[in-house]
Amino acid sequence: DVSRNYLNGTIPKEWGSSTSLTYIFVQGNRLTGPIPKELGNISTLRELTVDDNWLSGPLPPELGNLSGLSLLRLTSNNFTGELPQTFVNFTALYDLRLGDNQFTGKIPDFIQNFTNLTTLVIQGSGLQGPIPSGIALLERLNDLRISDLDGPESRVPQLNSTDI
Q1: Rounded to whole angstroms, what are the CA distances from 117 to 2, 18, 97, 112, 156?
Q2: Rounded to 5 degrees, what angle do the CA atoms 39, 149, 72 make?
Q3: CB of 119 within 8 A of CB of 95?
Q4: Among the listed residues 110, 122, 121, 161, the one whose alpha carbon sits nearest the alpha carbon of residue 138
Q5: What DSSP state is assigned to residue 119?
Q6: What is the pLDDT of residues 64-122, one digit of tens each?
Q7: Can you tell me the distance from the alpha carbon of 61 to that of 141, in angstroms, rounded to the nearest whole number?
Q8: Which CATH number fits domain 8-147: 3.80.10.10, 3.30.70.3040, 2.130.10.10, 3.40.1280.10?
């Protein structure tokens, strides 16, 4: 955990050769550049938190190799592009935060496959609506924050959980 240390530079691609790294917490620094695609090689990685940095560029599809990832926090950076289709593999996720970025494209339908999700934050992400109706299938969801979507007006799906 090297959070909130005013670190400059980039996330080292060499971290991708780790065989035992479980958590990467680098939030609240001044890191720049993209997330290295090599991080997708860390099969033991369970939590990736890069909030509140100056990271940019599209997310590498290789991150989709992290099928055991349970927490992904990307909030408050300058990420662009669409969410990679390989993220469909994130079925263990319980916490996904994408807000305050410059993503493009629609909120992907594959989010409905994240059945363990308890927290979903898509505020000011740059993503477009409509909100996928499959979000209603996320029965464990208790923290849902979606705002500032681009795109056409749409209805909010009927949510089954009374805990939101």
Answers
A1: 26, 27, 11, 9, 18
A2: 20
A3: yes
A4: 161
A5: E
A6: 999 999 999 999 999 999 999 999 999 999 999 999 999 999 999 999 999 999 999 99
A7: 25
A8: 3.80.10.10
